[in-house]
Design brief:
mainly beta, Beta-galactosidase, Chain A, domain 5, nine-stranded antiparallel beta sheet, 2 helices, globular
Length: 302
C-alpha cells in the first residue's frame, strides 16, 4: 500500500474509533457518572450511601435519566426506604437452612465493590464490570457470595437507549440458597424503582395492557412501563436463557417494578458454577411501538 494512503487509512480508522467511544465514565464522590456527549445516563453507587444509616447501601444505579434529561428513578422513597433506583436483591439468603441475611431490606447485609473496570468498544458501547462481595457487617472479612456484574451501555439511538445487565452469582459457602419474599407474592430479584403515577401504563410484548395486581403476574419476558402521554418509558426484558420462570410484581404507584426470580421457593447457588441472570433495559421516548423490540429480543437470545 502506498505510504500516503496508509497514513490516510490509519487516520480514518483512528477517527472512527475515537468517534465511536461516546460513553464515558467519571469518578465522583462515592461512585461513577456515566455520560454520552456530556449528557448524563446514570450514576453507579460504588460505596455505601448512608444518607439514612439504617438503610445504608451500595451496588445500584441512581439517578437514572431518560432521553430528555429527566430523572426517572427514586432512592430512599419514604414509602419503601430500602428501594433504590436499578438494583437486584433477595429477601431470603440462607445457609444450611438458616436465614443469615436479607439483601432486599438490607438486614445483616452489606456489599463491597472491587475489581472495577471500564472500557469502550469499537461500536461505541461502554462496558462496565465489577465484583461485589456480599457480607454480614459483623463478619466483614468473611464474604458468603461473590457477584460479578457487567453492564453494557449502548449509544443513544434516535428514540431509545439500550442497557444490558449480566449478573453472575457464585456462593462462597456451601448450601447457600436465594429466595424471594417468603409469602404468596414472592418478590425479589432485578428491580427498578421508577417514578410512577395514575398515568403509568404497563404493557406486554403484544402491547396488551397489564393491570397490576397484589400478587405476581405470569407474563412474557418483557414488560413495558410508560406514561400514557407517551413522554417516556422503560422496557424491561428478562433474557430467555435465565433459569426458571420470571414473574412480574407491578405497582401503579409507590413501589419498585420487579422481574421476580426465583419466587418464594429458594434455589441453591453453586460454589463452582455461577448462576447467570441477564436483563435488558430499554429507555425510550415516544410510543413503545416505535422501538425495534423484535430485533432486540433476537439479540437477547445470543
Amino acid at each position: 500500500m502506498n505510504f500516503k494512503y496508509l497514513i490516510l487509512f490509519t487516520l480514518v480508522l483512528f477517527a472512527i474509533s475515537a468517534g465511536a467511544q461516546k460513553i464515558q465514565l467519571k469518578k465522583e464522590g462515592k461512585g461513577f457518572w456515566f455520560t454520552e456527549n456530556e449528557q448524563k445516563i446514570f450514576f453507579f453507587q460504588r460505596q455505601l450511601n448512608d444518607s439514612i444509616p439504617s438503610h445504608s447501601r451500595c451496588n445500584y444505579f441512581h439517578p437514572v435519566y431518560d432521553l430528555n434529561g429527566v430523572c426517572i428513578t427514586e432512592d430512599f422513597p419514604s414509602d419503601h426506604l430500602h428501594q433504590r433506583g436499578i438494583y437486584w436483591a433477595w429477601l431470603q439468603i440462607i445457609i444450611d437452612g438458616e436465614q443469615i441475611a436479607d439483601g432486599w431490606h438490607l438486614q445483616n447485609f452489606v456489599q463491597e465493590i472491587d475489581e472495577v473496570e471500564f472500557k469502550n468498544t469499537m461500536n461505541g458501547n461502554g462496558v462496565f464490570s465489577y465484583t461485589s462481595y456480599w457480607k454480614n457487617p459483623e463478619k466483614p472479612n468473611d464474604p458468603f457470595m461473590q457477584e460479578q456484574t457487567q453492564v453494557n451501555i449502548y449509544p443513544q439511538q434516535i428514540n431509545y437507549r439500550r442497557i444490558d445487565f449480566t449478573i453472575q452469582l457464585r456462593a462462597l459457602e456451601h448450601n447457600l440458597q436465594l429466595g424471594g419474599a417468603n409469602n404468596e407474592k414472592g418478590y425479589g430479584g432485578f428491580s427498578v424503582r421508577l417514578k410512577t403515577d395514575d398515568n403509568t401504563v404497563f404493557t406486554d410484548i403484544d402491547n396488551k395492557q397489564i393491570i397490576p395486581t397484589e400478587l405476581a403476574i405470569a407474563s412474557d419476558r418483557i414488560m413495558d412501563i410508560s406514561n400514557k402521554e407517551n413522554k417516556s418509558g422503560v422496557t424491561i426484558i428478562a433474557w430467555e436463557q435465565n433459569p426458571g420462570e420470571t414473574k412480574w410484581i407491578l405497582r401503579q404507584q409507590m413501589s419498585a417494578q420487579n422481574a421476580a426470580w426465583p419466587g418464594r421457593e429458594p434455589v441453591e447457588i453453586s460454589v463452582s458454577q455461577p448462576t447467570v441472570l441477564k436483563y435488558t433495559l430499554i429507555i425510550h421516548k415516544g410510543k413503545r411501538k416505535a422501538i425495534p423490540l423484535k430485533y432486540l429480543l433476537k439479540e437477547t437470545t445470543k
